[in-house]
Amino acid sequence: MTSVSPPERATTTIRRVRPTDGPALSAIYAPFVTDSAISFEYEAPDGDTMAQRALVIDATHAWLVAECNGQCLGYAYAGEFRSREAYRGTVEVSVYLHQAARGRSLGARLYHALFAILADQGRRMAIAVVTVPNPVSVRFHEQLGFRRIGVIEAAGYKFGRAHDVAYYQREIGQDGRDCS
């Protein structure tokens, strides 16, 4: 993975994903796949695959990138929670940051920007799925107003053992519009 060390005074911008972001997205995501059970994927997707995923999701929901001096520091996205029509107002959200970009409130900035877009789309509820135990992610989501609503025990199997996932929920809009 490339080194990321933005100057302290450099401006970080949050923008929609672009087709050329694939390699950077892949570089950020790969350690979550290969070195942890945070992601339940077994093989890290390449840049082309990540770009395709991002563009498909961004076309219907939102995928945001945090960038500083041309370097991608992290991303957040919201996608379909369930496929049936009545779930359209509920989305599943995720945020991933480059290791060097953590601890700078960038994840919160990405989520807040994402929630604003989702509210404009008429989305009402965000669901975050967190592999547990993961105290850093749990604290992060709770500080942003998510509340734990349940746990699925042994939901995934990776690295020779079963892992639980906790579901966290946060309201993002209240207008009741149809999101079709």
UniProtKB/TrEMBL annotation:
A GO molecular-function descriptor: acyltransferase activity, transferring groups other than amino-acyl groups
Species this chain originates from: Salinisphaera hydrothermalis (strain C41B8)
Alphabetically ordered keywords of this record: Transferase
InterPro entries with a match to the protein in the record: Acyl_CoA_acyltransferase, GNAT_dom
Annotated ranges, domain N-acetyltransferase: 12-173
Descriptive protein name: Phosphinothricin acetyltransferase
PANTHER family, sorted: ACYLTRANSFERASE FABY-RELATED, N-ACETYLTRANSFERASE
Keyword ATP-binding part of the UniProt annotation: no
